[in-house]
Amino acid sequence: MAILRRINPKVDEFLTLEDTPSTYSGSGGNILVVGDNETDIEFTSLSGILGASIPNDVAIYRNLLGSKNGTNKVFTTPENYISGEITVLYNGQSLKNDDDFLETGINEITMIYVAPYSDEQIGATYKIDS
C-alpha cells in the first residue's frame, strides 16, 4: 500500500526549481503537465490536453476573470458556457442564479449583491459551449 504525503513547498521555492516554470505570470487557469521531453513540467491549457476543444458534456472549474476591487460586479469565464449550466462559487459558497448573480453574456456573469475584494475567491463550474 502506497503512503502519500502532502508536501507544502513555499511558492518561491517551487519557482526556483530547475525543472519547473520560472513564473506563474500568464498561466492563470492552466494546469501543470510533464513536458514533451519528459524531464520537466510546464503549464498548459485543458484544451491542450484534450485536443482542440473540451467536450461540452464536461463541467470544468475556472477562476472568474475581472477586477476584484470591492466595486466591480462583472466577471467573465475564459470560455463561453452553456446558458443555465453555470454554478458560481464565492469563497467556496455556491451562489444561486437569478438570486445572487445574473448570466449577462455568453461568457459573463454579473453579481447582484457582492463585489469581491482581492483577497476573496470567485470561480465557477460550467459546461463549455462549443
SS content category: mainly beta
Overall mean pLDDT: 80
**What characterizes the major β-sheet?**
4 strands, antiparallel
Low-confidence stretches: 1-6
Major β-sheet strand ordering: 3-9-5-6
Helix % is under 10%
Q: Give the total of domains.
A: 2
Order of helices and strands: HEEHEEEEEEE
Number of separate helices: 2
Proportion of residues in extended strands: 25-35%
Radius of gyration: 17 Å
Distance between the termini: 42 Å
Structural write-up:
This protein has 130 residues and is mainly β. The chain folds into two domains: 34 residues, no CATH class; 78 residues, no CATH class. The chain is built from two helices and nine strands, in the order αββαβββββββ. It has a four-stranded antiparallel β-sheet with strand order 3-9-5-6, with no helix packed on it. A three-stranded antiparallel β-sheet has the order 4-8-7, with no helix packed on it. A two-stranded antiparallel ribbon has the order 1-2. Strand 5 and strand 6 form a beta hairpin. The longest helix is centred in the N-terminal third of the chain and has 5 residues. The protein is globular and about 50 Å long.
